[in-house]
Amino acid sequence: MSTRELTVENFEETVTGNDIVLVDWWADWCGPCKMFAPVYDKAAEQHEDVVFAKVDTESQQALAAGAQITSIPTLMAFKDGMLVFRQAGALPARDLESVISQIKDLDMDEVRAKVAAQSAQDDPSGTA
């Protein structure tokens, strides 16, 4: 599967409307981004069950600012609409494969329970 270009208009729909979405934040002038692109594209071909998306931080500056992107490339992964991974820097192929495997194996009921428990701990009054 090829990668999808994300914009302010389709970002939310893409992230919430698919089981697993990887997002590569990049720019044309970024050397490490160019080195990571073929690795990312190859993984996209190998994982038909995952949406591989890209955000050009130059043309989508508001989106990048909203996501607090301060270094590129940055890889984000969403599962069931929830951000479950975020890391700046180009990943080697084996590390990207490891991230994808770990995301596929995530038990989202367990993740949601941990998030709820953390929220309750952060706000013992229960008003969060």
From TrEMBL:
Organism of provenance: Ornithinimicrobium pekingense
Keywords, sorted A to Z: Disulfide bond, Electron transport, Redox-active center, Transport
UniProt similarity note: Belongs to the thioredoxin family.
Limits of the Thioredoxin domain: 1-105
InterPro entries reported in the protein's UniProt record: Thioredoxin, Thioredoxin-like_sf, Thioredoxin_domain
Entry protein name: Thioredoxin
Pfam families named among the record's database cross-references: Thioredoxin (PF00085)
Domain of life: Bacteria
Gene3D superfamilies hit by this protein: Glutaredoxin (3.40.30.10)
Transmembrane segments: none
